[in-house]
Design goal:
With 172 residues, the protein is α+β, with helices and mostly antiparallel strands. It has a single domain, classed as 3-Layer(aba) Sandwich (Glutaredoxin). Helix content is 24%, strand content 33%. The protein has a 7-stranded mixed β-sheet with strand order 4-3-7-6-5-10-11. The two termini are 26 Å apart. Mean pLDDT is 89; it is low at 1-12.
């Protein structure tokens, strides 16, 4: 659990922080029927695990397309990209096809992965409070430890900032 300083006060952030072992998971992946993906499947590789609220919405589409458009530099650095939301596989498949996304989207309908990473939170939109996924990205090192925990990111410019981050600077 990491600490966050907000408006002069210190708060505890739920979920793992930088240096912590990334929680393993197993989830259904878009792209092929019945395909399951586990974080441990990528042992020895760096993984960008990004959480987003909902398929085919403006911000989530911007972010997914930015990852798509950045796949060449990410792959040159040996990075695996995995997107996670609570949407069903059918929704993920439509979203991937519509925007030609070259990476798996993981379905977390019961929120198990979201809870493990501490990204399912109370959010306020137009004065209404509800539970939802906080847009967040975790860079997981080849050793399974979190190199970077980015919570509450903005969709626009997020991938560019990630590419400039030293934790993705060179191929491992």
């Amino acid at each position: 659990m990491e600490k966050s300083k907000e408006a002069g006060k210190e708060t505890r952030v739920q979920g793992p922080g930088e240096g912590d072992r990334a929680p393993d998971f197993r989830a259904q992946a878009s792209g092929s029927t019945g395909s399951e993906v586990s974080l441990s499947d990528f042992a020895g590789r760096r993984v960008v695990l990004y959480f987003y609220p909902k398929d085919d919405t403006p911000g989530c589409t911007t972010e997914a397309c930015d990852f798509r458009d950045s796949m060449v530099p990410l792959q040159k650095r040996g990075i695996v990209v995995l997107g996670v939301s609570k949407d069903a596989l059918a929704s993920h498949d439509k979203f991937r096809t519509k925007y030609e996304l070259p990476f798996p989207l993981l379905s977390d309908p019961d929120g198990t992965i979201c809870q493990a990473y501490g990204v399912f939170k109370e959010k306020t939109m137009y004065g209404v409070k509800r539970m939802g996924i906080e847009r967040s990205t975790f860079v997981i090192g080849a050793d399974g430890r979190i190199l970077r925990a980015m919570r509450g990111v903005k969709a626009t410019g997020h991938v560019a900032a990630l590419l400039a981050d030293p934790c993705l600077a060179e191929r491992v």
